[in-house]
Amino acid sequence: MATVIMHAVVSVDGFIADENDDVGPLFDWYFNGEVPLVEDEALERNHAPFRVGRRSYEYTGPFWNSIGATIQGRHLFDLTNGWEAEPPAGEHLLVVSHRPKPDGWHPEADVPFFDDVAAAVAEAKRRAGDRVVAVCAGEVGGRALELGLVDEVAMDVVPVVFGSGKRYFGSVDTHHLLEDPDVVVQGNRVLHLRYRVRR
Predict the structure, then answer these.
(1) pLDDT digits over 17-35, tens only?
(2) What is the pTM of this model?
(3) Which of 21, 66, 124, 172 has the largest CB neighbor count within 10 A?
């Protein structure tokens, strides 16, 4: 059975981007080290050549390798053009959107669109098998948490304060208890944390 992990890089005050979708220094740690995070040449062509510190690699490498499917919302899809149908981690990409897939967008790619978060998670779990389903943080991740579909919350916390912007948990406005972090890894300009969701 797949584990569903909500994930993103986040500021210490809980934002994954500013109001204009600028991530500022949040992704700097992806480029401040000597170890390649992605070893697939095709993926590296479609994504930045990530080079992270050794401790970040020891955590992030196995985490990314464990991902079987990734779920993103329509906003992130539009910002990234759906990563050109090749997510940075995992074989499968699924999109939650009330709008249909854009006409002519990678017709060869098996990237289904869902207007329901629960249906997207169910299909992602089917595709991932016993691997991880990564749900991108923000509105879709927050909705999945509210629905009780998230098993763990993973944050790569960067020492910057945004003050305002796009919230890690989206518009979640109710209490959700997490267990104490079972992963705490200090990287170079990033703190990797992972929490199980308390049931």
Answers:
(1) 999 999 999 999 999 999 9
(2) 0.94
(3) 124
